[in-house]
Amino acid sequence: MKVSFVTTVLNEEKTIKALLDSLWRQTKKPDEIIIVDAGSTDKTTAIIKKHPLKPRLIVKKGINRSQGRNLGIEKAKHHILAVSDAGCQLDKNWLKRITAPFRNKSVDTIAGFYRAEVKTIFQQSLAPFVAVMPDKLDSTTFLPSSRSLAFRKSAWQKAGRYPENLNYCEDLIFAQNLKQKTNMIVEPKAIVHWQPAGNLKGFFSQIKNYASGDIQARYKPHLKRIITVYLRYFIFLFLPIFFVFYLFWPILKFYRYVSHPLAFFYLPLLQIATDIGIIIGSLKGLVLSSQNR
Known about the structure:
Blueprint: E1 3-9, H1 16-24, E2 32-37, H2 44-50, E3 56-59, H3 65-75, E4 80-83, E5 88-90, H4 94-99, E6 109-116, H5 121-130, E7 149-152, H6 153-158, H7 170-181, E8 184-194, H8 200-217, H9 220-238, H10 241-246, H11 249-254, H12 263-291
Helix pairs in contact: 5-12, 8-12
């Protein structure tokens, strides 16, 4: 069973080597590695070319993440595809575990799992806002990120490929289509380690981009959440006392993942940053959607 690994990059000189090194350490190595670069202006391509794995590098300036993924999959020699992202490091058994279920010919897609790799109390506090925590994993409802995913090329075609009009939320739309149109199973031991933002600015930008992508993709589960954010702040305008109680809500939800006194400050701060990011990002998404009509 031969496997092609595909990823996309844009100015990832700080992260691409770690991803490639984790591929090098795999107990089952990919038979082909394809990296699609969207026009990096830093040292990304130089690092890729020097790596002993000798990945196949395709440079296509100006393409978005979906277009890059589709291009890499199109060029792949093999019919089993595994995908992840720059900024991730793969557990040494990741490829072995995420491809083993393909021995059953009825399986089309394997959803792996990813864990936030935290180094600070701040990152530990923000992890529940941006990642599925291990105790919350429900294989019946889980939609995988393309940080940890494998599929047959035929499944990619059945799912309609990655939606090329999207640069954010594209993997959720693709995963949703995979789940609806192919036989998907979840392999929680196929783990990718992913480092979230290290500061408030990076976290805010991430949330804003996610919300913009949700609007452009019209992803219904997240649209409902966005609407509830607007509704709660509408209520706060008339009943500001509720806002005070609201600040304790993220502490009740997420303190068990942090268990540090700083969480009493970080968790409410991150909740407010999340809400503002969602509001600004969703408005940006509405503008972009109207322009693309």
